[in-house]
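JOB MANIFEST
job_type = single_chain_structure
chain_count = 1
residues = 460
[input]
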Amino acid sequence: MPLAPDVLKALQTIAGADPVLTATEDLIPYSFDGTAALRQMPGCVTLPRRTDQIVQILQLANRTRTPVVTRGSGTGLSGGSLPVADSIVLCLARMDRVLDLDAANLTLRAEAGATTQAVSDAAATKGLFYPPDPGSMKISTIGGNVAENSGGLRGLKYGVTRNYVMGLEVVLPDGRILKTGNQCVKDVAGYTLKDLFVGSEGTLGVITEVLLRLIPKPAAKKTLVATYARMDQAAQTVSDIIAAQIIPCTLEFLDRTTIHCVESFAKIGLPLDCEALLLMETDGHPAVVADEADRMEAIAKKNECREIRVAKDNDEAERLASARRTAFSALARVAPTTILEDATVPRSALAEMIRFVEGVARKYQLRVGTFGHMGDGNLHPTFLTDERNTEEMHRVEQAFEEIFDKAIALGGTITGEHGIGVAKKRFLARFAGDESMRVMRELRRTLDPNGILNPGKLFD
């Protein structure tokens, strides 16, 4: 049933001068996120500017048993911010201030709606560095990054969002405010509550402020691109780089389909007669960077790369890096529906997993482009399809079923950075097991006994 008139009236009182969106044309942009083929109209949308408004909204929702779905920019790729029917969408995009940058303690405090790019740019004004760089960083919000524990191209060396969260302000489902964490580098007093909310996909509380750890900006960087006749040569290059105790900041790959799409899109000058491309970047002290770049070039040549290009300056480095950063956009031009997934396997199983994805695509007569973070084993098989073709979409679902089962069988996981949301919840129990599912369900029931926050996500 639609939202009750008294609930809408109460929301309008809380919103004050800001509108509560209810008209169909206003709700459509909030009825989907970055996940293909998933849509659901909400009951209304609120855009609070202050934490006290969120407190009142959750108190109202908890009292009236009204579902609430928190949203940032809607760039998620697992349906995590997809509304449920007759829900309140709580969009935090207007809570977008960088509140404090403490250069002495290397920390930054921001509201949840601040974009990842704004956080990165603010850090850079003081010569500091916020490493996580999800592909959507220009528009994704830091609160959404925390809720999804977002990764990025620099994850191999620098880790993911969780590694930089020092503290959080969270409004719990009943409207109480929890503040957890601080600026201390060491703090082992009690449970590390902030970690409960990192990666919780909006199911345990509404993140309103984030305290982040920053690091000094690397003094130098070097970018290399190598191309290969066979994918296993690229995979062996990655294994040899890690075995040589080199941890690049970026170690990414593209397969043949993705290379062709990127070259058609970006005109970088990539060779089209290769099966794999590796993007390698090292950063740090200039002497270390020069040494690591030379060693990675030698390792690539030892593994019979067809060609290796070393960027001569920052402009060329950016152009070469765009081969990977534009991969999704380039693939999205090819077909009406682009389904970007992620699965992670141990690095030693990368070549096998990539070949398996290719075999599954042939089996189900589908077109796939695979790219991703080869340095940390995170693959993005991307099927190019048309959601209007019901029969083909069924084959896509069958293909992903096999891909996720294979990832689990190889000792991997069903998601390295996109999250579970609704798109993958049927696979979670296979991966996590009964006891982990029990603990997660009990934790969720404890914090949200009325089940108002992001219902239907992660598990039913």
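[summary]
The chain has four domains: 5-91, 98-216, 220-327, 335-428.
The CA atoms of residues 45 and 186 lie 40 Å apart.
exit_status = 0
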